[in-house]
Amino acid sequence: MQGPSLANGTEKQTDWNAIDWRKANRTVRNLRQRIFRAAQEGNLNKVRSLQKLMLKSYSNRLVSVRRVAQVNAGKNTPGVDKLVIKTPAARGKMVDALAHYSPWKAKPVRRIYIPKANGKWRPLGIPMVYSYCHPFQDVWGLHCQCGLAH
Fold first, then answer.
1. Spatial distance between the Cα atoms of 86 and 74, rounded to a whole number of angstroms
2. 93: number of Cβ within 10 Å
């Protein structure tokens, strides 16, 4: 299936089963390390440019979707968009759709109330799958969906 033809986007749909995960993880890890080193050096211009590069990175989109759709414990919990990504084809479509997703406008969250130890209830916001998958959360590597701080 052919997607929209873009100047610097993907022309074909991503084949989830043919992805080299070792290469994708290595690319994201190296970019995170470069951001960290630039921040430690105090080079804020370089940090900002590397963050922009991370936002546009195809490998980062792959790793983000994989975490949300396969690794995360809440992978079967739909958000306000009622979307759960279960098949490899759907994951590939999500990666391609994230290339055109704009994170600058806030999306609604699904409110669930969970009980606290003292008997009261606490609100929990479950965001849209797109919000979870967007690579912006992985710019610093601190909001990783797998629960590990990289």
1. 12
2. 18
Q: Which pLDDT belongs to residue 72?
A: 78
Query: Residue 8 pLDDT > 50, yes or no?
Result: yes
Give the span between the Cα atoms of 88 and 69, in whole angstroms: 10
The helix/strand/coil state of 102 is coil
Reference 57, options 106, 24, 103; nearest CA is 24
User: CA 48 to CA 30: how far, in whole Å?
Assistant: 16
Q: How far is CA 15 from CA 26, 42, 139, 144, 148, in A?
A: 19, 39, 24, 24, 27
pTM exceeds 0.70: no
Alpha-carbon gap, residue 27 to 135, rounded angstroms: 13
Per-residue burial over 52-81, b = 16 or more CB atoms within 10 Å of its CB, e = otherwise: eebeebbbbbbbbbbbbbeebeebeeebbe
Closest CA to 13 of 5, 28, 2: 2
How far CA 55 is from CA of 41, 98, 147, in Å, comes to: 21, 10, 20
Number of C-beta neighbours around residue 103 at 10 A: 14
